[in-house]
Queue: 2 jobs
Job 1
Amino acid sequence: MSHELRSPLNAIMGFSELIKEQAFGEVKPEYREYAENIHESGAHLLELINDILDMSKVEAGKANLDERVTNVAKVIDTCMRLVSVRAETNGLALATEVRAPLPPLYADERKIRQILINLLTNAIKFTPRGGRVTTAARLDANGDFLLEVRDTGIGIAPADIEKALEPFGQVASEALRTQQGTGLGLPLTRSFVQLHGGTLKIESTPGQGTAVIARFPADRVIALEQNVVSFAG
């Protein structure tokens, strides 16, 4: 099913991008606009399909972790680069707060990356121009690993936080409802954190911003001296 859905969508997006970029010659402005709409719609549909497939695996208990020693600081840098253009287009400042030296985490690197991308994309989407999105990573007093994304955006009412964590959840805020999205980003993020034995917490104040904190248990933190050999390999 995954292959049958993704293959034609990738073709639609690829050909529409060629038309949009006028790769084989100039096209009428109207056709270029149509190609842009086709590409954007295809990208949105592909995102929805990927999220549904991931959620299906989680709900069926078939989501597995490919665990390894993960350099989270490096993953943060990669994710910040990936969203930098979108943030710049929206007139937002990006920042990182990583307490050095940050120890590695024994985790699924792809899922850590997906957690961060989901949180950063949400933060950028719901933060007005001139705002700020910050990614932070640190150990707390108990030795747990905390990964946090906070913004100066529109915020979420306390009564709506649990709804936002439900698959396809709809919150009361009109500003949140009108934003395009799958409704699966936060539920998937929480599921991926829970697969690691962790928890996801949302702290938010309407009109002031939101902080989402992913907490990973201390037994997943790799002592720096243990990691010298791991990274050397």
Job 2
Amino acid sequence: MRIGVPKEIKTLEFRIGATPGVVQRLVHEGHQVFVERGAGAGIGLADQIFADVGATILPDADAVFDAAELIVKVKEPQAVEIARLKPHHVLFTYLHLAADPAQAHGLMKSGCTAIAYETITDKFGRLPLLAPMSQVAGRMAVDVGAYHLLKPQGGRGLLLGGAPGVLPARVLILGGGVSGKHAAQMAIGQRADVTLFDISAARLEELDDQFGGAVKTCFSTHDLVADLLPTADLVIGCVLIPGAAAPKLVTRADLGRMRAGSVLVDVAIDQGGCFETSHATTHADPTFVVDEVIHYCVANMPGAAPLTSTYALSAATAPYISALAGKGVDQALADDPGFAMGLNVQSGRVTHKAAAQSLGMS
């Protein structure tokens, strides 16, 4: 199969869809790989490195899309990329369609087949291609939250872990999935006071055991979250409903309960965000303030650590790329029901139920 790896063009996005090791594996399996010139430059991967393992370097994205059948990316296609897609293309990347009707309609109009990393499941029902970036985003959420709590950034002037004789900052984590768990690990490591919410009693019990009681765990209801907001310094939203828009767990009215200079970090922003006042931001302009509360809502958080993120993601995506290239899309999805859950758009229709419902489609 002919596989294309274009350069990412989202603001300050330096990740690349396939590492040299993955390219080498695909070439060894008999496939042609086309990499756009400069696609890996942002993380120190020169074109020659890809050429040395068998890739063909093409001058621009138009050439890559024209040459390839399978397009492997990291972030959702931007408008100019959607315009390059044709019915014969298979697009394999993060999509997050539920919060992006313009992208959904563009992909439908293109006639391409689009498979989303974030809705693929494994035999245990986990999300193996979302997990690596959720881990990075969860860990980053604590770092960026702690940074914006500092006074020069407009925060309350708190050190997350406090100091001898001074109480630490209070962190609320909404959602006990992969990103929530990793956020809790980082927050505990910085000696914060951490409370984690989830709607699964079994998951809360599991996390309580894992953290040995170092994290307070609470069954999530809006009333309980709202009751704790007045004493919260940092709130990290990590809720996820695969393929669907994130539920709004903190409303505009709730902000009135929070102290000036407190911080909200919305890890769920790719799916529309779990705070009512959230809207997507970029690494170039990551925050905004509503009712004196700082909001950090960067839609590609792991892109700030592109070297770490690229290698973590490629390790997870490699076997799926090989399956698509080796078997073709129909057979690859037929052989793996969990992989088939990644199918989001085909033949002009949104094919993932939760995404379609969030978009108001059948």
